[in-house]
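Students often ask why inverse folding is considered easier than folding. One informal answer: many sequences map to the same fold, so there is more than one right answer. In these notes we will look at a single instance of the problem. The structure comes first.
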């Protein structure tokens, strides 16, 4: 059974940093592309960052230069280092996994497995 468990969310002031983690189980982690997505109230879920099974990253335009995605295949975990946080980064952040092959970058619809999410709130 595929499980994705996010952690590391919380409240932070503008300009601050947070590091999210997502630990996976129930599948061969090294064979899956992984990603972070977010959804704010009344907004569609959007890509934050994705990372291919060989470690190639891709970032959404809103976070490029501020966020960094990484993966540790030995720990079945991906990370999202978020710096220079802004109020508009406030959202529920979801970890996702995809076994899609043949193209990169992927889109949201390519991800078939999702975690429960962790809340990030940026406010003064």
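Output (designed amino acids):
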């Amino acid at each position: 059974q595929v499980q994705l468990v996010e952690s590391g969310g919380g409240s932070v002031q503008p300009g601050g940093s947070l590091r999210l983690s997502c630990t996976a189980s129930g599948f061969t982690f090294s064979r899956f592309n992984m990603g972070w997505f977010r959804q704010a109230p009344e907004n569609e879920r959007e890509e934050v960052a994705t990372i291919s099974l060989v470690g190639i990253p891709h970032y959404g335009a809103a976070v490029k230069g501020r966020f960094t995605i990484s993966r540790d295949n030995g720990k079945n975990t991906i990370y999202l280092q978020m710096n220079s946080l802004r109020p508009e980064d406030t959202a529920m952040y979801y970890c996702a996994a995809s076994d899609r092959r043949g193209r990169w970058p992927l889109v949201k619809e390519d991800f078939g497995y999702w975690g429960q999410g962790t809340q990030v709130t940026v406010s003064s």
